Predict the structure.
Amino acid sequence: MSEQNAVPKHEGVDFMTDTRPIAADETGPGCKKRDPIVVAENISRSFGGINAVDVEYLEIPRHKITALIGPNGAGKTTLFNLLTGFDNPNSGKWQFEGHNIAGVSSYKLARLGMVRTFQLTKVMGKLTVMENMRLGAADQPGERLSKALFKGIWGGREKEITAQADVLLEKFKLDAKKNDYAASLSGGQRKLLEMARSLMVRPKLVMLDEPMAGVNPALTQSLLDHIKNLKSEGMTVLFVEHDMNMVRHIADWVVVMAEGKIVAEGPPADVMKNPAVIDAYLGAHHDVDLGDAEGIKELEAELEADEESIVGTENAGIIAPEIVVSGLEEKDGK
Ligand SMILES: Nc1ncnc2c1ncn2[C@@H]1O[C@H](COP(=O)(O)OP(=O)(O)OP(=O)(O)O)[C@@H](O)[C@H]1O
């Protein structure tokens, strides 16, 4: 393994093999984490008479993949919108990396290293794949949206950003499409583009709202692998998902919401046997193991049989390395 592809370590710990407990103490709704990256307290948001979110306390563990699950209308997207500055709560405060970020705009949050994707992708169809990637870089300190789209203004900085976009597009198997309009991509490829674009800011926390929704099974495995790669590269991931099998196979930690509240938290295998979770999903009196592996087996078989699966499932290595463009003397557009 080359030095560039080596799994990053934090205080000597390999993120992929770290088996230390995630909770600081006992596991349960609102439990403290050994190393939280987000800490949220008393967040509430109502729409008319509906308490969409009413979260007393939540910590998101650093360098882990956390899944936020819950039935339709549980408040997952609303909580995402609040945490990422796309909506304002009725009350509450929350921190990212020790900074109070309640009321901070999504643009500033991206600069701090917290990015998100959307349930319905927000790639710009009338721009090319590469132009979409440049827009992602516009969230970086010192960049402007207008500059992101026009060649020649940036000098060396532009070359650096284009080089970074090229690396990401290759990792996400979109390099052959970089000059195509984003509108011509399939739904799954748009999700990949949105994820790749969010990585242009080299985030610390990546929040994905239903990354697998509406994605062809041929791309689902690739998306799962990309999510795992984010962790291997030192990022923290929080994602919303419905499909329990997806959650079971990639999440280190699962947070369950129902009717706006956190009703359970813990490692996937434990959470999926929790009667409160089964009730929240299916209503009472169901004797079902939500961690049933049949779904993922079917998916694997489908993938093998699908000739159109253009995406690799191997570990793609470093997704967002520090780019060094050889011979580059100009910096920051000077
Ligand atoms: N802008 C809004 N105006 C009115 N009600 C809203 C609004 N956004 C969300 N709600 C309501 O808040 C509750 C939580 O919705 P939210 O979309 O956060 O749930 P969710 O868990 O993400 O659901 P899903 O899995 O279906 O996306 C629902 O009852 C929803 O109807």
User: Anything to note?
Assistant: The domain at 24-123+203-305 is CATH 3.40.50.300 (Rossmann fold). The first strand starts at residue 9 and ends at 10. The pocket of adenosine-5'-triphosphate is lined by residues 47, 50, 52, 70, 72-78 (CB under 6 Å).
